[in-house]
Amino acid sequence: MSDTVSLPLKKPTEGAFLSMDQHSPIPVRGPALPFETLFDAETSAPGQGVELHPDFAAVYGGPMRLRPPTDGLPLLAMNFVTAHDGRVAFNHPDHRGGGPISGFDDNDVWLMGLLRARADAVVIGEGTLRAEPSHVNTPDDIYPGDGGAFAALRRHENRSTLPIFSYITFAGHLPREARVFSMEDAHVVVATTRAGARRIRATVRPACKIDILEFGASGVNLERYARIMASEYGVEFLLCEGGATLYGALLGAGLVNEPYITRSPLVVGENPDNPRPSLVEGTGWLPDDAPRMKILSARKAGDYLYMRYRATYPA
Hints:
Oligomer: single chain
Number of strands: 11
């Protein structure tokens, strides 16, 4: 599969991946309920990486250290909320996205805001954008109450004002009405096929800066995409927010490093006439080649669990 880039790529001047010795206070409101730390491997095991600002660490109840990227690939984290039975969406016109699964849990959306505040780029699949075209993957859009604190955290970690907004699409069916395309200060990177690129150029009239990465005729090479994001855009922490098919493809490519999974107490069940996706769709494994998840931390608030894992892959 040959890869071509349709627009010139420039590394951003901001977005370096570093931590600072001096910590200026950041007033963080945080969620209404405190996180109760049940287990955190990082509290007793120092390691390399970007330390979370102490004012945020005090709310989160732990360090949330971002490990340096390796092998020319960004550190890739997933963020998902699942129901008690593992479903990630109701797949209903009136109940789209992960919000109804979490019940718009305050701790879950605050944690999502924190991860976005630390990300150099946020990537989602085409279906996720179509489901919520009015949503923009910024920390203040999901948790405006700490919008100023999240912006201060981005400055503290020397990141750009906004993360790069990235979309993976084979066919290029991006909703032209998506709010991100009207944001003049946004930078969008789309990975697609040649046919998808043609469709996007014909249908989307963005006010934002948009780069289209073309990956041949039949699909998107996800490893190549991740390397381009690292080498051409300076992305060292890449956050993926779904959907389930993209999660499965990234796991299948061995690219996922750290999933953050919120477990909601809701039981969603199945609807045979309108299938409801589980956490991973479109990719499957047998026991000998299945990825495994090592638990790094577990927290709770009310009846919700907030877990962080490290993905490992068979040799």
